[in-house]
Design goal:
This protein has about 280 residues and is α/β, with parallel strands linked by helices. Helices cover about 40% and strands about 20% of the residues. The strands form 3 sheets. The protein has a 7-stranded mixed beta sheet with strand order 7-6-5-8-9-11-10, with helices on both faces. It starts with a strand and ends with a strand. The protein binds S-adenosylmethionine.
Length: about 280
């Protein structure tokens, strides 16, 4: 049956609210705009638009999945990061606004001229691609242990026209690399597996666990990166690793113990939460 847009939307908002979705209105609007290949402002301007039955069915299927807490980004296949659209799939972590601090810090700390950067655990490729788009003279190697994640990264590399300067490589952290780079950046898995029951269902039940969890209270990947970064960083090279808000002190203590030739600090966000481990490697090891 043909239905008016406003009625379909109201029903969807009711369904999502009843399921306990806090952002019911926004999510319903984003999903309807996605199904109609339009934007949310068009919906507001056309409340009496008659939806073809096929579109109504498609929308209702997405609303049913959202009511089970499947993230909107997986339903639309896209998420914005640093002002750019990125393809996402359940093979990759959905890019987070918090990670923009890592990108801002890399852009501020590294020379604008030719730099070589390694992005470890690239997932959707959001960090590697953004750096390459922002700095046309940089070359970036984007690694991930997951072949499925790298397939998504490759799509984003092509989408943003940086294939000539961003090289995707399947690797376990830094294992296959030799030579030197000016910076290693990474948003590694850092959630303490013990926190799993406390995660929201959208994260816990849908995002890849290999992108979320790390042993040793969430710090195993961070520690491994700190231990091996010196081998690849040029003198004066920079290591930027995203960490959890509670991990500032333990990450700093581990880093100083594991890599005494480097200088480490914690960068915080505007709310004062620890967000980045910043290492300067004065000596190549
Ligand atoms: C937290 S996600 C970050 C994804 C993306 N960089 C972002 O910021 O949205 C961590 C990524 O690290 C990858 N990963 C996990 N263990 C790894 C390892 N040992 N070596 C390389 N990548 C790894 C996961 O597959 C996942 O894509």
């Amino acid at each position: 049956m043909n239905q008016k847009l406003a009625i379909t939307l109201r029903r969807a908002i009711e369904t999502l609210s009843a399921a306990g979705i806090d952002s019911a209105r926004l999510d319903a609007e984003v999903l309807l705009a996605h199904v109609l290949h339009t934007d949310r402002s068009w919906l507001f301007a056309h409340p009496d638009h008659i939806l073809p039955p096929k579109k109504t069915t498609q929308f209702e299927q997405l609303i049913a999945r959202r009511a089970q807490f499947e993230p909107v980004a997986y339903l639309t296949g896209e998420r914005e990061f640093f002002g750019l659209p990125f393809f996402v799939s359940p093979a990759v972590l959905i890019p987070r606004p918090e990670t923009e601090l890592l990108v801002e810090t890399a852009l501020a700390r590294l020379p604008k001229t030719a730099a070589r950067v390694l992005d470890v655990g690239t997932g959707s490729g959001c960090i590697a691609v953004t750096l390459a788009v922002q700095r046309p003279a940089w070359r970036v190697i984007a690694t991930d242990i997951s072949a499925a994640a790298l397939a998504v990264a490759r799509k984003n590399i092509r989408r943003h026209g940086v294939s000539a300067r961003v090289l995707p490589v399947q690797a376990d952290l830094l294992a296959p690399f030799c030579g030197t780079v000016d910076a290693i950046v990474s948003n590694p898995p850092y959630v303490n597996p013990r926190q799993k029951p406390k995660l929201s269902p959208g994260v816990r039940d849908f995002e890849p666990h290999s992108a979320l969890f790390s042993p040793d209270a969430g710090l195993a990947h961070v520690r491994r990166l700190v231990s091996v970064a010196g081998r690849l960083l040029s003198a004066g090279g920079l290591l930027l690793v995203e960490i959890g808000a509670e991990q500032g002190e333990p990450a700093l203590a581990s880093a100083r113990a594991l890599s005494p030739h480097a200088t480490f600090a914690i960068a915080r966000d505007l709310a004062g939460r620890a967000r980045l481990l910043v290492g300067e490697y004065r000596h190549s090891l």
